[in-house]
Design brief:
By secondary structure, this protein is mainly alpha-helical. The protein is built from 16 helices and no strands. It has a single domain, classed as Up-down Bundle (Growth Hormone, Chain: A), CATH 1.20.1250.
Length: 384
Amino acid sequence: MLGYHLYALTHDPLSLGWLGLVEAGPAISLVLFGGVVADRFSRQRVALVGRMVFMALCLMLAATSQVGGRTAELGIYIVGFLIGCANAFITPANQGLEADELPDGDTMRGASLLSSLGQAAMLSGPVVSSILFDVGGASTTYFCLAVMFGLSGLTLARYVVPRPPLGIRRGDSIAARIGEGLRFAFSEQVLLGSMALDLFAVFFGGATALLPVFASDILHVGPTGFGILRSAMSVGSLLAMLIAVRHPPQARAGLVFHGAVACFGVAIIIFALSHNFVISFLALMVAGMCDGTSVVIRRAILRLAAPGEMRGRIAAVRMVFINSSNELGDFESGMLAGAIGAVPAVWVGGLITLAVVGLTAWRAPKLLGLNMADLEAQEAARRS
């Protein structure tokens, strides 16, 4: 709800771009250090600390929202910056922990199940938070989020047993540890290609940052309609992930990956051109299905292509790409919308996404022809 709350205070799409920028700066600049932390210390404990940090930030937002006006606006920017800092350390630990928990020999189904659970939360979260925002206001919404982060931390502490770190030698410098992760990530065409495709497709094709503009000024559906639109991609992602649990894209994973990102670009173009709420919702849902399919494949790639002792650092490199595409993509969307309008900014991004898919297929043929069974065989050989 940060974006909607900020737009409600400013009514300026450029402010959404600035919010994306203040989140992206620390997230990108610190995440490689976060990868070292995820491989050097217990990933479970780092994830637990992260939940407590997010709880504190939600309480800070609740307090500044009570004051309102410029104080609330400044509070959103400050918390956005701190969220970027926290995510730089928490996300590599979370992703490394998830990869550790995926079962051997059933990686695709495990990735699909984990993704489905996450998307179920993302599906209900925007709707519930938008209703809370409508009924109780910003302060109540942020306080409830703080409670949820606290409960999540208690659950993690109760049910997940901390594991010792696997592979960083105590004598290695931080620069050497970061360099090891970078060299491995950039030497593997499947890893690099999947991260690059995600980076440029989401950077240019993302419409999430401009949803407040579409909900308020184009579709005229208010905060509740915004919450429904915000959840549309999660609905689609959840459907795709549940299908992948039963029918994982194993043999032609690379081809499915490229096709999903291409369909994502088409759906974003349809959303941009629509003035009908139902069509807009369906377009975003299809985009979510495409994104959900690509998420499952990318998670499986992280599990199978990265050694266990390096998963935190590989996840950190991946997060550089993801943060660049998400937060800097939000900034790009806001800036472009301020210059040419929200509608052309989104459909132009969809066209660029289609071009990126073709370029990636040409430059990363190993990714296009990816068969997950081959990666599973490589992982088994590495363990032996």
